[in-house]
Design goal:
Strand order of the largest sheet: 1-2-6
Number of helices: 10
Radius of gyration: 27 Å
Structural class: alpha+beta
Helix content: 40-55%
GO molecular function: ubiquitin protein ligase binding
Number of domains: 3
Family: Belongs to the cullin family.
Largest sheet: 3 strands, mixed
Keywords: Ubl conjugation
Oligomer: single chain
Shape: elongated
Strand content: 5-15%
Pfam families: Cullin, Cullin_AB, Cullin_Nedd8
InterPro entries: Cullin (IPR045093), Cullin-like_AB (IPR059120), Cullin_CS (IPR016157), Cullin_homology (IPR016158), Cullin_homology_sf (IPR036317), Cullin_N (IPR001373), Cullin_neddylation_domain (IPR019559), WH-like_DNA-bd_sf (IPR036388)
């Protein structure tokens, strides 16, 4: 679901029909409940495109409301998508106007929905005016907000950038590293080390140049893999518990090995369960008084209602 969300939001999906076809297969395999949110995400994006068209029509009929820059907003339904961290980023004045214009437009459509802006998923195309030429920079909203600070200041310290943007330490480190220590050094850093520290001072690198007219400056992702694996393990523990209890509730008494085999068969449609994990969950259910071993035969389990 998280990977699908990234593909859809960052327009990395090869084909909407392919996504729908995979969802249909998942639905047949795991049931409608498993895919309902993902189907909602794909539908959401279609509605968001329609919403963007209405927004463009609204701007063409209300020239006074124009934000002054091209603006695309993707409105999503909270329940369908993975939860994303939403920070109160201090937006530059240009972006504040964008938010206000879109909010006014959205209120003409509905008064009952509240918009929560997820700036961490936004992208901006900004023109970097360097000494050699102007280069279009494709950056995240965070990176754009940081770069625009240098329109008003020659030099800024780490702490000044942090307080101006109202971001956490981790985010500021990732952000400044991508702009001053990675492939494209849009900012010069003093001292010029490969790591970011709170005593660093930054200035705009006017001498920066590149053979391309348009460059994308990536912002390293937070490593979500570990968190995803933990969440999956947790969900699987609940699924194994539920399967064991279902089997024992209908059988009342069952041999240990038979229970493990039936549990593996029942869960096989969803994922390939690990025998060790099933045995661990059986022991856990025994300690929680859902099951007990027979006194005469330790390999036979009884269900406790």
């Amino acid at each position: 679901r998280k990977k699908l969300a990234r593909r859809l939001l960052f327009d990395k999906s090869a084909n909407d029909d392919h996504e729908r076809s995979i969802l249909t297969k998942l639905k047949q395999q795991c049931g409608g409940q498993f895919t309902s949110k993902m189907e909602g995400m794909v539908t959401d994006l279609t509605l968001a495109r329609e919403n963007q068209t209405h927004f463009e029509e609204y701007l063409s009929h209300n020239p006074n409301a124009s934000p002054g820059i091209d603006l695309t907003v993707t409105v999503l339904t909270t329940g369908f998508w993975p939860s994303y961290k939403s920070f109160d980023l201090n937006l530059p004045a240009e972006m504040v106007k964008c938010v206000e214009v879109f909010r006014e437009f959205y209120q003409t459509k509905t008064k009952h929905r509240r918009l929560t802006w997820i700036y961490s998923l936004g992208t901006c195309n900004i023109n970097g005016k360097f000494e050699s030429k102007t280069i279009e920079l494709v950056v995240t909203t965070y990176q754009a907000a940081a770069l625009l600070l240098f329109n008003a200041s020659e030099k800024l310290s780490y702490n000044e950038i942090m307080s101006e943007l109202n971001l956490s330490d981790d985010d500021v480190v990732r952000l400044l590293h991508s702009l001053s220590c990675a492939k494209y050094k849009i900012l010069n850093k003093e001292p010029s080390a490969k790591t970011i520290s709170p005593t660093d001072v930054f200035e705009f690198n006017g001498k920066f140049t590149d053979k391309m007219r348009r460059i994308k400056i990536p912002l390293p992702l937070v490593d979500e893999k570990k968190k995803v694996m933990e969440d999956v393990d947790k969900d699987r523990r609940y699924a194994i518990d539920a399967s064991i209890v279902r089997i024992m509730k209908s059988r009342k008494v069952l041999g240990y090995q038979q229970l493990v085999l039936e549990c593996m068969e029942q869960l096989g449609r969803m994922f390939k369960p690990d025998v060790k994990a099933i045995k661990k969950r059986i022991e856990d259910l025994i300690t929680r008084d859902y099951l007990e071993r027979e006194k005469d035969n330790q390999n036979v389990l009884k269900y406790l209602a």
